[in-house]
User: Which sequence fits this backbone?
């Protein structure tokens, strides 16, 4: 099989030149962003996107300028969670203007470009069963465009909500070699932590990205009637996992059904229910995130 370099020409498409120019735009665009932070897990279903939306809102409530990029191209959910779904996307000479949440958080997501609720993301190919050949490349290309073509403006934090998969962080590093750090999300279940350990190894030992810390979501359930706290899962070893990888445990967020209800209604939980245990935990995580970057810049 011939490689790209073995071909006599690119048919005039100048693919390499196009990518180089886009990388240049990306670098220039992110010069006004102080800190880029990936929110990752490796495991789906741990509430990572919900944490991203609420962490962004908690930082905004602390007076920070925040942006969120939904890097889940095929299953975007951030726009709905942050109350900007259906917002019109404007194109200007300087790029694409992101949607803005009620708290002023700038949001970019593939969901803003889909026609309706039932519209899937389809990649151009002779047939969709053949599209898998290019799907990974096209997803990375779309992510590069979101980063380089969005008018982020001056931000203190750009949070990047990664989809499940331990390979997602290395792909992002290819686009953002100066990624500031990553927050890793787990739940107390053994299955989740089995996968999350692989993500921690990838971040800490393979791609060598600073880890802001570990977050345990759905740590416990607080009874709405009696206030008693009970475990949702068997005893967790999240704290031990944090010690093993020598990273901070940023916090444990208790399960609260209103987190899901708020997301479904386009509200962020920390703004709507500020005096709850879960909101206090998220606010503490925001404070520790700020502290991490204040001490590492």
Assistant:
């Amino acid at each position: 099989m011939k490689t790209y370099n073995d071909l006599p020409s690119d048919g005039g498409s100048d693919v390499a030149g196009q990518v180089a120019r886009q990388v240049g735009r990306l670098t220039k665009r992110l010069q006004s962003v102080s800190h880029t932070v990936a929110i990752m897990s490796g495991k789906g279903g741990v509430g990572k996107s919900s944490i991203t939306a609420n962490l962004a809102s908690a930082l905004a409530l602390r007076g920070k300028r925040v942006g969120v990029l939904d890097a889940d191209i095929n299953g975007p959910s951030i726009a709905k969670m942050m109350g900007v779904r259906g917002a019109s996307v404007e194109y200007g000479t300087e790029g694409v203007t992101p949607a803005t949440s009620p708290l002023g958080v700038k949001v970019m997501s593939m969901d803003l470009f889909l026609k309706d609720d039932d519209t899937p993301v389809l990649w151009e190919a002779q047939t969709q069963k053949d599209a898998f050949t290019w799907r990974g490349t096209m997803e990375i290309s779309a992510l590069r465009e979101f980063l380089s073509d969005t008018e982020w403006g001056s931000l203190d934090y750009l949070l990047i909500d990664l989809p499940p998969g331990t390979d997602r962080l290395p792909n992002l590093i290819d686009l953002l070699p100066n990624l500031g750090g990553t927050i890793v999300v787990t739940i107390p279940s053994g299955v989740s932590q089995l996968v999350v350990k692989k993500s921690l190894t990838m971040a800490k030992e393979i791609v060598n990205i600073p880890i802001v810390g570990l977050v345990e979501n759905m740590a416990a359930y607080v009874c709405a009637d009696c206030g008693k706290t009970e475990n949702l899962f068997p005893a967790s070893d999240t704290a031990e996992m944090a010690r093993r990888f020598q990273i901070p445990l940023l916090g444990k967020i208790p399960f609260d059904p209103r987190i899901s209800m708020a997301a479904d209604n386009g509200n962020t939980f920390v703004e709507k229910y500020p005096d709850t245990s879960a909101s206090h935990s998220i606010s503490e995580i925001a404070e520790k995130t700020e502290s991490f970057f204040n001490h590492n810049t």
